[in-house]
Amino acid sequence: MMNVLIPTDFSENSHNAIRYALDYFAAIPVNFYLLHISPNTAMPADDDSDLLFNTAASQGTAQGSITSLREEILHFKLLAKNAGHQFFAIHENMLLVEAIRKQIDAKEIDYVLMGTKGASKNNRNEIGSNTSEVITKVKCPIFVIPENARFKKIKNISFLTDYNCIYRNKVINGLSQALLIQKAALRVLHIRSQNTMLSAAQTDNKGFLHYFFKDIKHSFHFLENKNIEAGVQDFVETWEIDLIAVVAKNLNLTQRLLFNRINKSISYPYEVPFLILHE
């Protein structure tokens, strides 16, 4: 049985993430743990935050939060597409990262799934300080579901890499599991800033991916001399990418993709879910 943890503040963004999870895992039995943090102990929000656990919807007593969790579970039980989907309510009075870490250990969580509201009002931040904190500090595969993401049959999963890291078991297994669950093709994308050949180590790492995924439909691509965000946008549109996977260890790439300011022509952070893989 797979275990999925979904932090919720009872907002539409959280509800959208839960709906996405029900569709994504429709073919397999899953324990869904809905986690709510009391607002008085959540991380402080600022103008760049996605306001997770700081919305008016989450105000109230602990008992009120528990009641809301139960109502949310009843609602999503009706939407579940698999009789093996089970739902559990969790209420915590601690900081968000601490609460998530606690539940990962206690419930043997396979994935954390977080809904986000996309860009902030002043367009300086893509997914908010809370999600950023979880991505960098919680060592578990994390789905980031933008507010405009709607589940559709996942045909192509893009794996963004610079080929500079040795792919550990947790990364490979996380990526492989996503491909198998969705019966999707893997599109490996290397974006390089200048016209240089791969080093021997990079070539070896690329060869490892080719060997490991030999039984899965896959292809290798590269874009050079392009802005990373624009390159990813072009690739998403050209190859009809439904999910973007990236290794969290590559902090520079993750920052560029998710946290930098972008222009209006870049839409993928609002529409395409990300899968953040940890070593």
Can you describe this structure?
The protein has 279 residues and is α/β, with parallel strands linked by helices. The chain has two domains: 2-145, Rossmann fold, CATH 3.40.50; 156-272, HUPs (Rossmann fold, 3-Layer(aba) Sandwich). Helices cover 37% and strands 22% of the residues. It is built from nine helices and ten strands. The protein has helices at residues 12-24, 62-79, 96-107, 129-137, 169-182, 200-212, 228-239, 251-258, 268-271; strands spanning 2-7, 30-37, 85-92, 111-115, 142-145, 156-160, 185-192, 218-224, 243-247, 274-277. The protein has a ten-stranded mixed sheet with strand order 3-2-1-4-5-10-9-6-7-8, sandwiched between helices. The longest helix has 18 residues, at 62-79. It is globular, with a radius of gyration of 19 Å. It comes from Aequorivita flava. Residues 2-146 form the UspA domain. Pfam families: Usp (PF00582). InterPro entries: Universal_stress_UspA, UspA. Belongs to the universal stress protein A family.
Labels describing this entry:
279 residues; alpha/beta; Rossmann fold; 2 domains; ten-stranded mixed β-sheet
Strand order of the largest sheet: 3-2-1-4-5-10-9-6-7-8
CATH class of the largest domain: Alpha Beta
- SSE string: EHEHEHEHEEHEHEHEHHE
Low-pLDDT segments: 41-59, 119-127
* Percentage of residues in helical conformation: 25-40%
As for the number of domains, it is 2
Any idea what the shape is?
A: globular
Identify the quaternary structure here.
single chain
Main beta-sheet strand count, sense and barrel state: 10 strands, mixed
Tell me the structural class. Answer: alpha/beta
Rg, Å, rounded: 19 Å
Number of strands: 10
Give the end-to-end Cα distance, rounded to a whole number of Å: 22 Å
Identify the CATH architecture of the largest domain. 3-Layer(aba) Sandwich
Strand content: 15-25%
**CATH third-tier fold name of the largest domain:** Rossmann fold
- CATH H-level superfamily of the largest domain: HUPs
| Average of per-residue pLDDT values | 85
